[in-house]
Amino acid sequence: MKGNVTAVLIGESVITEDSDGARDFYSQSRLGEVVNAKVHLSLLEAMYLLQKEKLAITTRTGKEISQEEYLKKARKHDPAFDIRYAVFKDIRNRGYIVKTALKFGADFRVYDRGIKPGEDHAKWIVYPVHERNALTWQEFSAKNRVAHSTKKRLLIGCVDDEGDVSYWEVRWMRP
Fold first, then answer.
1. Is position 77 annotated as part of the catalytic site?
2. CATH class of the domain comprising 81-170
3. Which pLDDT tens digit goes with each residue over 29-80?
4. Confidence of residue 7 (pLDDT cuts 50, 70, 90)
5. For the segment 105-129, what is each residue's pLDDT rounded down to a tens digit?
6. Is 152 a catalytic residue?
7. Residues of the chain with CATH 3.40.1170.20
8. Which option is the CATH number for 5-76: 3.30.1490.190, 3.40.1170.20, 3.90.1310.10, 3.10.450.50?
9. What b-and-e string marks burial along 65-81, b requiring 16 or more CB atoms within 10 Å of the CB?
10. pTM for the predicted model, two decimal places
């Protein structure tokens, strides 16, 4: 098995073994959440670690899941997985901490470099979109209101057909 740490795919969660290596995902990189000495990873976080060959994912019966199989299962749970993962991976690779923002009505919240969750608030909320998908003015306005009401900046992560990501930051201005 590739990867220093083993985890089990259970529905929309990936739960690691009880090990120091697994807990290092959280303590060093703020990936996942520690629950009863194990780390609970999102599908996106697990894919990131799987691609970096730091994690091996198995079924409940212990059969290892390949990256291709894992991607197929993740897409089944989240039809927008590829777009969301492209943005997640790009932001992580740039050195930012990315966490879910479901309670804010967004996909992600992003912490400025050097800031860890709990030390300060996230700087941005992020909505991944494909470049061919259009937002209505009402959808755009709703996203902007969520950012403004949570005192965060709105970041639209726009993914092209090659998987490259461009960012659009939206701010309120007074003329």
1. no
2. alpha beta
3. 899 999 998 999 999 999 999 999 999 999 999 899 999 999 999 999 999 9
4. very high
5. 789 999 988 888 888 899 999 999 9
6. yes
7. 5-76
8. 3.40.1170.20
9. beeeebbebbeeebeeb
10. 0.90
Mind giving me the DSSP string for the chain? Answer: --SSEEEEEETTEEEE-SSHHHHHHHHHH--SEEETTEEEEEHHHHHHHHHTTSEEEE-TTS-B--HHHHHHHHHHH-TTHHHHHHHHHHHHHTT-EEEE-GGGTSSEEEEPTT--BTTB--SEEEEEEETT----HHHHHHHHHHHHHTT-EEEEEEE-TTS-EEEEEE-----
Catalytic annotation on 121?
Answer: yes
Q: CATH 3.40.1350.10 in the chain, residues?
A: 81-170
In this structure, is the dihedral angle defined by the CA atoms of residues 71, 34, 112 and 168, taken in order, positive or negative? positive
Nearest-angstrom CA–CA distance, 97 and 23: 16
Q: Which of 48, 70, 111, 127 is catalytic?
A: 111
Out of 72, 76, 116, 121, pick the active-site residue: 121
